[in-house]
């Protein structure tokens, strides 16, 4: 499993997160996840990021623990890998 982020927030009250702005995701790997739920309440947002087709269609992984309170977001991202219609239901 190839994953770009694994944010470790343990509570929604924690004031931490990852924000990737004006980035570019490219490479030779396939089915790369934008993030996975390392701890119980991660928060990661990609904005204005160009995503090549290497990004997995689901985009995000709950790390096989769908009960986690994840906050994953994408805002105005572009490219073949930026496809909100194929993302997991927990993605915002």
Automatic annotation (TrEMBL):
Q: Which InterPro entries match?
A: Pectin_lyas_fold, Pectin_lyase_fold/virulence, Pectinesterase_cat
GO MF, one annotated term = pectinesterase activity
**Which PANTHER family does this entry report, sorted A to Z?**
ACYL-COA THIOESTER HYDROLASE YBHC-RELATED (PTHR31321), PECTINESTERASE 63-RELATED (PTHR31321:SF87)
Keywords for the protein's UniProt record, in alphabetical order: Aspartyl esterase, Hydrolase
- UniProt name for this protein: pectinesterase
* Record-stated family: Belongs to the pectinesterase family.
Question: Which of the seven top EC classes does this enzyme belong to?
Answer: hydrolase
Spell out where the chain crosses the membrane: none
EC number from the UniProt entry: 3.1.1.11
């Amino acid at each position: 499993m190839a994953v770009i982020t694994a944010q470790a927030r343990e509570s929604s009250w924690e004031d931490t997160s990852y924000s990737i702005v004006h980035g570019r995701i490219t490479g030779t790997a396939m089915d790369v996840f934008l993030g996975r739920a390392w701890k119980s309440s991660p928060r990661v947002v990609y904005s204005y990021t160009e995503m090549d087709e290497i990004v997995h269609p689901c985009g995000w992984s709950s790390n096989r623990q769908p009960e986690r309170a994840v906050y994953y977001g994408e805002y105005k991202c572009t490219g073949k890998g930026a496809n909100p219609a194929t993302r997991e239901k927990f993605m915002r």
